[in-house]
Specification:
Helix 2 runs parallel beside helix 3, helix 5 packs across helix 6 and helix 8 runs parallel beside helix 9. Strands 5, 15, 16, 17, 18, 19, 20, 21 and 22 form a 9-stranded mixed beta sheet that branches. Strands 6-7-8-9-10-12-13-14 form an 8-stranded parallel beta barrel, surrounded by 4 helices. A 4-stranded antiparallel beta sheet has the order 1-2-3-4. The protein is globular. The chain is α/β, with parallel strands linked by helices and 429 residues long. Helix content is 28%, strand content 26%. It starts with 7 loop residues before the first strand and ends in an 8-residue tail after the last helix. The protein has 12 helices and 22 strands. Bound molecules: pyridoxal-5'-phosphate. Pyridoxal-5'-phosphate binds next to helix 10.
């Protein structure tokens, strides 16, 4: 039996088979591996631009700010690409702020999310002049007011409200339910808005929510939007006017056979609801992460050994949970295809890493034709891949490559063994 052919990867048209070898745009991946080794993250610049284009094309003349949820992939080359395309950014830390400022992002298009902002982070964001602090608690609001006062500034604020809707996604990436740590319960929001209004150094600019990730249905968004607009109705009665409505990120991508809605489908329905309720003038802010980068990247890994045990066949590869955590953390499914598909007998493999943990697997029960030394592509690894990489088992983090047509660029070097211990020291004798 022969390997199923894959003219292009499931959700990744910029990664396709050509002359028997998987390519990223115009670059053969075996050539990249020969030059840079594995494990290796490879991104497609064209795929980033196309994903962003799906948002910008959906704007339809309305006032919409697309703030890339940069925690999905914070490589400077990725950030620079989105900054060039005109994106804003959704940041969750002072470190992320430093990264976006380093690529020349416009601070007026930066929103600052996160449940645990520290005073120094608030201070640097105030100095930079961010668009909005998405505030998640009364305590945070009070601290922000004090920090703003000390800085002699006014802090623009949206409250992140928790609309208590079920995003019907994995529990670890569902954030809009009452039991989650995120946001302010929507029934408490009017009171916290009144508090915000009373604080001297706070300017109320918006209402924010983010209900989860890898959403493949529009209805949770619309349910949340209706609840947000009810809140806005009430705020108006309290004399509080807002300028923008931030509907968060969370749009899903195709890992296997999912059919997530397009940004246009989502936005068209959002615009309809806004118009129907007399809020067509409100600016819309979005915070997409995964849907801008997930299918713009893959992870390449080499088969180190094949092991045929009684119950299972294992392909032990040189990438592991420290390089791509999603399977271990969320039992996430990533497609796996050979870079050079070969003819032969298909066997069912678990693709596992070398780390001393049973949770260290990348894929399970996959029909593949494999030999030792083959290079595999782990699909849809552009989001929550490299950003979650670590050094467990004293493994160096992979290199990252950005392909641009026929060209490829190293956008992050592979770590070295020296770097692993660089900050450490032993006690004196
Ligand atoms: C993670 C996150 C995003 C991005 O989510 P995606 O599912 O990657 O689109 C947006 N906003 C906030 C507040 C987040 O925490």
């Amino acid at each position: 039996m022969t390997q199923t052919s894959h003219p292009a990867l499931a959700g990744q048209p910029h990664f396709h088979l050509q002359d028997g070898t998987l390519h990223a745009e115009g670059v053969a991946l075996d050539r990249l591996v020969a030059e840079h080794g594995t494990p290796l993250y490879v991104y497609s610049r064209a795929a980033l631009a196309e994903a962003y284009g799906r948002y910008s094309d959906a704007v339809n003349g309305r006032d919409v700010v697309v703030c890339y949820g940069m925690k999905a992939n914070s490589n400077l080359a990725v950030l620079k690409e989105f900054a060039r395309l005109g994106a804003g950014f959704d940041i969750v830390s002072g470190g992320e702020l430093q990264r976006v400022l380093a690529v020349g992002a416009d601070p007026a298009k930066i929103v600052f999310s996160g449940v645990g902002k520290q005073a120094w982070e608030m201070q640097t964001a105030l100095k930079a002049g961010v668009k909005s602090f998405n505030v998640e608690s009364e305590a945070e609001l009070r601290l922000l007011s004090l920090v703003a006062e000390a800085e002699g500034k006014r802090a623009p604020v949206s409250l992140r409200v928790n609309p208590d809707v079920d995003a019907q996604t994995h529990p670890y990436i569902s954030t809009g339910l009452k039991e989650n740590k995120f946001g302010i319960a929507i029934e408490d929001a009017p009171e916290v808005y009144r508090l915000a209004k009373s604080l001297a150094n706070i300017d109320i600019v918006g209402v924010d929510c983010h209900i989860g990730s890898q959403l493949i249905d529009i209805s949770p968004y619309l349910d949340a939007l209706d609840k947000l607009l009810d809140l806005v109705d009430g705020l108006k009665r309290d004399g509080i006017e807002i300028h923008h409505l931030d509907i968060g990120g969370g749009l899903g991508i195709r890992y296997t056979d999912e059919t997530p809605p397009s940004p246009k489908t989502l936005l068209d329905q959002v615009f309809d609801r806004l118009d129907a309720r007399g809020y067509g003038h409100l600016q819309i802010v979005m915070e997409p992460g995964r849907s801008l980068v997930g299918n713009a990247g893959i992870l390449l890994t080499t088969v180190q050994f094949l092991k045929h045990a009684e119950a299972r066949n294992f392909a032990i590869v040189d990438a592991a949970m420290n390089d791509l955590l999603r399977p271990a953390l969320y039992q996430a499914w990533h497609g796996v295809v050979p870079v050079k598909p070969r003819l032969g007998a298909v066997q069912i493999y678990d693709i596992v890493g070398p780390i001393c943990e049973s949770g260290d697997w990348l894929a399970k029960q996959r029909p593949l034709v494999l030999a030792q030394g083959d290079v595999l592509a782990v699909e849809s690894a552009g989001a929550y891949g490299m950003v979650m990489a670590g050094n467990y088992n004293s493994r160096v983090r992979p290199a990252e490559i950005m392909v641009d047509g026929e060209q490829s660029h190293v956008v992050r070097k592979r770590e070295t063994l020296e770097m692993l211990t660089a900050g450490e020291s032993v006690l004196p004798d």
